[in-house]
Amino acid sequence: MGFFGFLQRPDLGQGLERFAATPNALLLDVRTQEEYADGHIPESRNLPLQTLGRTELLPPARETPLFVYCLSGVRSRQAAGLLRRMGYTDVTDLGGICNYRGKVVK
Asked: Which of 8, 59, 60, 66 has its CA 20 to 30 A from that of 46?
């Protein structure tokens, strides 16, 4: 990663393809419950960023593949870092859905 590599945004489309191809993976939407209700990616599970510290809401197996997204990518980056610090070993930050044009569930 170059000096400004942190400015690169994850490719949501590629990330969702990886999610679909990964057995036992979880897709986590870390936006608020209201944002989630307004429209979310199918198969996603809402775990707002502020609730991630509650381990009973997360899978007990730390090797569970987790794919995380939010609106713009800021909260997903924070969530991915938190999940890694909590011991999860397979965490992918998908970034934000602000430009997502795929199917959403309301």
From this structure: 8
Looking at 28, 47, 70, 83, which residue is catalytic? 70
User: Smallest Cα–Cα separation from 69: which of 98, 33, 89?
Assistant: 98
Terminal C-alpha separation, the chain: 37
Q: Residue 1 — pLDDT band, cuts 50, 70, 90?
A: very low
pTM of this structure: 0.90
Active site residue 70: yes
Tokens encoding 81: 């870092």
* CATH number, domain 9-96, options 3.50.7.10, 3.40.50.1220, 3.40.190.10, 3.40.250.10: 3.40.250.10
Collapsing DSSP states into helix, strand and coil, what is residue 77? helix
For residue 97, which of 20, 32, 39 has the smallest C-alpha distance?
Answer: 39
